[in-house]
Amino acid sequence: MTKIRVLLAAGFFLAAAGWAGEIIKLTLDGTVNPATSAYVLRGLREAQRRGASLVILQLDTPGGLDTAMKEIVEGIMASAVPVVVWVGPAGARAASAGTFILLSGHVAAMAHGTSVGAAHPVALGGETPDEKDPTVQKIVNDAATRIRAIAESRGRNADWAEKAVRESATATATEALELGVIDLLADSFSELLEKLHGFSLRDGRTLETQGLIVQELGMTFREQLLSYLADPNLVYILLMLGIYGLIYEFLTPGIGLGFVVGSISLLLAIFGLQLLPISFVGVALVLLGFALIVLDVLSPSHGLLTMGGLVSLILGSLSLFEVESPAVRLSWSTVAATLGTLTVLFFFILGKGLTAQRQKPHPLTTLVGLVGEAKDDLAPEGWVFVRGEYWWAQAEDPPIYQGEQVQVVAQEGRKLRVRRVSQK
Q1: Catalytic choice (96, 115, 312, 325)
Q2: Is residue 370 a part of any domain in this protein?
Q3: Contacts of residue 195, Cβ cutoff 8 Å, sequence gap at least 6
Q4: Which of 76, 178, 354, 411 could form a disulfide with 104 if both were Cys (CB 3.0 to 4.6 A apart)?
């Protein structure tokens, strides 16, 4: 007991003397989205709970969603634990939404070979919006005011920050330091820790990093999965694959690969759609497009419905996501490649199957007398599998249940008449 008391007393003494503590390190590498926002906010809460001395956010982002960026900035601005935002290593950048995040840190640092800026809002297609449009002016003015307020609250160059929004101004690490956009340069994490030791904050606090343990807090599996699903291109591919797979499965008998792949893809796509701002008009156009394609398969219209369906799919795809950032948007190439590939495969596979069903039986190869298997519940009609092919059949002694053996008693064009094989 005496030894335990001595150790506890020594630990308390070291903590009081400032020797105990830790640094929480977070890494935002990729787009700014709801998943990365949740990760950063969780890290800030964890640092507060542990009583950490410092949080260092290593940043490398092309930008992202405005709502997610706003949550991160608000979390950093409200953090009682000092937050250092470091753009590094060389080659990293803090573009668009990343500029807001960098300027919000208690300490802003960059490595040589990095860049910051280009925070001008962009339209859905990625092009520069019309500055004369009143709606666009409101968006730009709002973004410029926000970034100016952030820069002023941290004592940084508010004029340059506003130019980054209004004129897409950019700066290298050296230029950013000269302009007063950042506080220091550090080419490595160890150099950053050295330069932070003894650094005085605007609120009068002095940072101490020597002797502190660095605890790296990574993303959980759920956060990583959500981060991947926050990419509109991946969500779109999963959505198309899921719907095509389920339609193919419903148009063919039995449960197969289409149902499995389609169901999983569609569920993941729905999960991703919850993370991204979507247009209900775009969703409606996509569903209408698939409905027209299915109608053309069931009641052929010489391709008219299919063409209308494809047009509806393309229009719906391009208006599906309401995303302003070029870093997080659906590209034309993804739409073209996905729709083209899946549509060709869909009609090729389905066409082969329907062609086989519509072929007239050869007189010398009658199916009468052959034994097959019911693939549906025949009450009285359904699909049967006879001699390696699927046939539409009517039971003479319904109901015949799926999996039972049947025998062909008559063949009427593309339709068979069958009866249950007696079980001995």
Answers
A1: 96
A2: yes
A3: 109, 184, 186
A4: 76
- Same domain assignment for residues 352 and 385: no
Tell me the residue range of the domain where 390 lies. 363-420
Distance CA(275)–CA(207), nearest Å, equals 37
Is the pTM value of this prediction over 0.85? no
- Specify the length of the chain in residues: 424
DSSP code for 133: S
Token digits of residue 129: 């919006």
* pLDDT tens per residue, range 55-95: 999 999 998 888 899 999 999 999 999 999 999 999 999 99
Element (H, E) at 368: none
Per the domain annotation, does 240 fall within a domain? yes
351 plus 376 within the same structural domain: no
Q: Any catalytic annotation for residue 96?
A: yes
Residue 37 annotated as catalytic: no
Q: Which residues, in sequence order, are CB contacts of 262 under 8 Å at separation 6+?
A: 241, 242, 243, 244, 245, 246, 247, 248, 249
**CA nearest to 86, candidates 67, 47, 114:** 114
Q: What is the largest CA-CA distance in the chain?
A: 101
> Using an 8 Å Cβ cutoff, are 408 and 385 in contact?
no
List 138, 188, 190, 352, catalytic entry: 138
